[in-house]
Structures are given as structure tokens and as C-alpha cells.
UniProtKB/TrEMBL annotation:
Pfam families: Ni_hydr_CYTB (PF01292). The chain crosses the membrane at residues 12-32, 44-60, 88-110, 140-162. InterPro entries: Cyt_b561_bac/Ni-Hgenase, Cytochrome_b561_oxidase, Di-haem_cyt_TM. Gene3D superfamilies: Transmembrane di-heme cytochromes, Chain C. Keywords: Cell membrane, Electron transport, Heme, Iron, Membrane, Metal-binding, Transmembrane, Transmembrane helix, Transport. Residues 6-172 form the Cytochrome b561 bacterial/Ni-hydrogenase domain. Its cofactor is heme b. It comes from Novilysobacter erysipheiresistens. The lineage of its organism: Bacteria, Pseudomonadati, Pseudomonadota, Gammaproteobacteria, Lysobacterales. It is a multi-pass membrane protein. It comes from the Bacteria. It is found in: Cell membrane. This is Cytochrome b. Belongs to the cytochrome b561 family. PANTHER family: BLL0291 PROTEIN (PTHR30529:SF6), CYTOCHROME B561 (PTHR30529).
Amino acid sequence: MSTQNFNPAARWLHWSMAAMVVAMLFIGVGMVTSISARPWLIDLHRPLGIAIGLLAVLRLRNRMRHRPPALPSRLPHWQKTAARASHWLLYGLMLAMPLIGWAMLSAGGYPVQMSPSFVLPPILPQDVSLYATLRTAHGWLAYLLFATVLLHLSAALLHAWVYRDGVFQAMAGRIRHRLERER
């Protein structure tokens, strides 16, 4: 059983971003299914997406400076490989999605309004066919992100409830200890 935990910044970033990514997935679904809610959901989607991208950069920087706890030695090699691959996929998606969204809006000639007084500059020239390509990519990557988040959550719960090997506890930190004391 591992007793090593992620550092406090990694845990804070993980759980904050987890809430933001889950909110973003629901906001994205709402944007494509509701005409009446679409304008205010878009107003939430843009700054939240950029915030996720910025936090992903901070999280990567933290990860490079603070090595994550080792996975249990008894885990099969394929599970360790899958865990590493899924984490890097999540990082890649959390960086790519905001950039592709920003690029898509730039190519469509739409402002990336962060607040009433702050608009991000375009990062691509206006081009309708590029906009269409990026919009399709953004949508498919959102599905991939949703699937990856579900797999990540499933693996986390498997480690917490079945394996009980300390992997979940390393990221949960004090949360799990509080829950155990309340029982």
C-alpha cells in the first residue's frame, strides 16, 4: 500500500479542474441541445475553457517539478502503461480543447469574450473552411474527453473500492481520511 501523496498544489489543481471539466462537459451538452440557454452557456464556456487551459499549464509545470507517487508495484504493466497514457491524454485534451476552441472562433471571425471588457485577440485569420474543420475537431475531442474522464473516474473508483491500494488516497489526501472518520 502506498503512503506517498501528491503534493497539495497537485491535489488542489486536480480537484478544481475535475469540477471545471465536468461542468464544461454539461455546459457543452447544453450548448448544443438548448436554443434558449445557448447564449449564456457560451458566455460561461469560453472563459471556463481558457481557465482550464491555463490551469492545465500550471498543473503540467507542477507535475514536472514534483514527481507523482509511484503506482503500486503489484499492478500489471499494462495497467501502469494505461494509467500513464490516459493521464497524458487528459493533459493533452485539457490543453488542446481551449486552443482549438480559441482558434475555431478566430477562424469564424467571432470574438473570444472573456468578460464584458476583455476580449482575447484572434490567433488565426478568418477562414470559413478552417472554422468548420476546427469546429468538427472540437466536437470530436469533446467526446474523447468525456470518454477519457469516464475511464479515469472508473479507474479511480476501482482503486478506491476494490483494490484499496492507496492510488485513490494519494490524490484524495485528507478528503478520504475525513470520510473514514465520519463512518
